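Thread title: Can someone regenerate the structure for this chain?

I was given the following input by a collaborator and told the matching structure tokens would be attached. They weren't. Posting the sequence so someone can regenerate them.
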Amino acid sequence: MKKLTKIIVLIGLIIFYTYIVALDHIPDHIVIFEGENLNVKTMLGLDLGMAEEKKNEEIIQTSVTTGKTTIKQTGTSLLQVSLFDQIPVKQVQVEVLPKTKVIPVGSIAGVKLYTSGVLVVGMSEIEGEDHKKYKPYENSGIQEGDTIFEINKSPIHTTEDLIQTVNQSNGQEITIEYRRNEEVLACSIKPVKTDEEEYKLGLWVRDSAAGVGTVTFYEPSTKTFGALGHGIMDIDTSQLINIASGEFVTSKILTITKGEKGNPGRIQGSIDGQKNIGTIVKNTRFGIYGTVKEVGNLNLDPSKEMEVAMRDEIQTGKAKILCSLDGQGAKEYEIEIEKIFKENNYDNKSMQIKVTDPTLLEKTGGIIQGMSGSPIIQNGKFIGAVTHVLVNNPQEGYAVFGDMMLKQARINE
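Best answer:
Regenerated them for you:
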């Protein structure tokens, strides 16, 4: 009898844990476009419907045959997850965006990013005026990848701000506030005086970054752009750069290094003396976004404006990418969409793609660094952008869904 009781309790705990995991995988905030199905994975006994105060409003429609849910109005709605349609267990905020059209771009542009504070990219011993070695940062808790934004209650915007504030300490212990991911932390460090009459912390920091990439789309209705399809990471810390501001400028292609197995190629460009395109306001896992100020510098063709495809419209098979490799404007090249991961909302590997165009293969060997952000078009609709190359096979790589990029551009984070 005791054994049976234990088995029943164990089964009950497993079922309880399974429901907890299922609930945890239902996001608190979902963004979809008007007409897009709300695909939320649930399990037996978990039902999705309008929150109590909205139940009399006919703004939600669920297909009995497919289980797919559509919200029939733009704006923000509150859905409720219930256990057996009786016990409320979780609320989900759904933001429905109006449909939009974009102009795929495909041209190379330069990026200048300025961090929100200064980024710690390294640490080193300091030789004091007594010629002894010191590590003032030791045991402070601060790490590479942290962003310093305040010292002794004084804002730190640039490397120069940090140097000046540390020198003003005259060797007295200072309080540093910094961010690690979204968490705000603080520590105290006593600067070390060098024989050059300077005070140092032993921290290497950076306040800006620059490079080139491909502009994915321009959205005429909002005058915004999206690019890259992936975020800009710091080369030393491999973390997403937390930006305060940024500039988007035209770029001149200098050289193209062809990719080969085990050695990805790259596009090398120059941003010196180039024209301004606009302002960068977001650096996200799914690309960089901002406002276009000088539309003429993008060399757009308004007749190329097209709809953004919903995921159910994307098919395996032939498609085209737009990219600029010779400074003469973006050209179309053939690719094959090999796999589609429709349920993927978590990273930018939404589709597996393969370059099949002989001309592009001759020029680049496939996907190379700098082509990230190249827009993908299928059946006259914008479906996504190139994001990654497979290092051992540069003909193949990954792409992000177009709807994911548009959502990043449209929502306030």
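Residues 88 and 377 are 42 Å apart (CA to CA).
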